Amino acid sequence: NSAIGEIQNLNIDYVQEIRELPSKSTYSVSESTVVFKLKDRLAKAYKLYENEEITEKDKKNETITITAKVYDRNVLLKRLLKYGSYCEVIFPEYFRKKILSTVDAALQNYE
């Protein structure tokens, strides 16, 4: 996605046509930083994934803040959604809003 500079996986089963564009994209894909906080039991048992580091830990070990460097935020989005109320996305604001809209859309199915 050249608008936000990240790689997105595409299912090639749905590709109907491939053609060369008349110009080369000037956008490059770069690594993104996402910061999230984990709480309670998840904070105590969490094992870091590749390119993640704990940047803050409270004294009682009840919350940890993790900085993740990712190329594909959608993969991280799916993982963080599994953590439910034990996870809060801190940065970037765009990613916080994306998580919120995904949760809101899921809740609409149950209204």
Helix-strand blueprint:
Layout: E1 32-39, H1 40-45, E2 52-57, E3 63-70, H2 73-82, E4 87-91, H3 93-108
Antiparallel strand pairs: 1-3, 1-4, 2-3
Descriptive report:
This protein has 111 residues and is an alpha+beta fold. The longest helix has 16 residues. It is globular and about 55 Å long. The protein starts with 31 loop residues before the first strand and ends with a helix.
Question: What key phrases describe this protein's structure?
Answer:
alpha+beta, 3 helices, 29% helix, 111 residues, 4-stranded antiparallel beta sheet
Mean pLDDT: 87
The helical percent reads: 25-40%
User: Which structural category do the helix and sheet elements fall into?
Assistant: alpha+beta
N→C terminal distance: 32 Å
Number of strands: 4
Low-confidence stretches: none
Strand order of the largest sheet: 2-3-1-4
Number of helices: 3
From the spread of the alpha carbons, the general shape counts as globular
The amount of beta strand, in percent, is 15-25%
Element-by-element helix/strand order: EHEEHEH
Summarize the biggest pleated sheet.
4 strands, antiparallel
Q: What's the alpha carbon Rg, rounded to whole Å? A: 17 Å
